[in-house]
Amino acid sequence: MSANNIGTGLESIVRRFADARIVVVGDVIADEFVDGEITRVSREAPVMILRYESTRTVPGGAGNAACNVAALGGRVAIVSRVGRDRAGRAVTLALRDAGVETRGVATDASESTPTKTRIHAGIPHSVHQQVLRIDREPKPPDATELAKLADRLSSSLDSARVCLVSDYGYGIANGRVAEAIAAANARGVTTIVDSRYSLTSFRGATAATPNEAELEETVGAPIRTDADVVEAASRIAIELALQAVLVTRGRRGILLVERDRDPLLLPAVGSIQAVDVTGAGDTVMATFALGVASGASFADAARLANIAGGLVVMKQGTATVSNRELVDAVAATRS
Question: Is 282 among the residues known to form the active site?
Fold first, then answer.
């Protein structure tokens, strides 16, 4: 099939995103960005002094995945937990403003919202760079909380085509929630998993979207070449009974491995000099999930995800890609 025909087909898929409903379950993180200008070296210690300029807080983790689904035009609900704190209020409001249904987000007064504070600094007239990250991590939810979240998830999945699992290791996708995910998959809900540390816990899911480092850790073997990536992804697909594995590879693009099909290696789209890769994996899996939910093949969903990933890494901070941006970018591939 010609590039022109592929591009036309991809455009039609993106235009069907509005008909897709996706439920995202996983760890909502508050991504906090503190910006400032480096003014001088401190007299107290050999460190730079940052003159504070601004702070902004946006949804990260599962929250960023949900925001990307909404920005791309899909209908999306999220099931998660936040603390009853400033960060929790900020991300919940931001999710609602983005068009994400938040009835499945529980508020825990006894715990804080997981927060990643990134310090961005620069000299006058320069692009600010991330110089430090501070992580605040809560305790995992207990069995009672997980049971309540599982009930919310089961209710939310009644009218959803795809369940997108965004597991950053803070415990939301454990216990009864993991059982609810498996039950949904068993009754035909497409389940796409992105798990930072526990991919093997989701055997029997429809697809997984690890990056190369996560894939390497999962198989317990070094990955050096394209052949190594194909072998590792194929092994995981067989061992976990997955229909597809989509591996994000940074500036080397994306690899898709499906059962009984040749591997699909997609080179990175756009500039290989990324501005910021924060949350890029969330954009890729959200686009992939929307493609699948809209009736696309895994291959076409991967092509769209690759294009969206190339767009989002050219933006500062935790960002999203809009439906219009993706349509325009797909159209540009045909010219």
Answer: yes
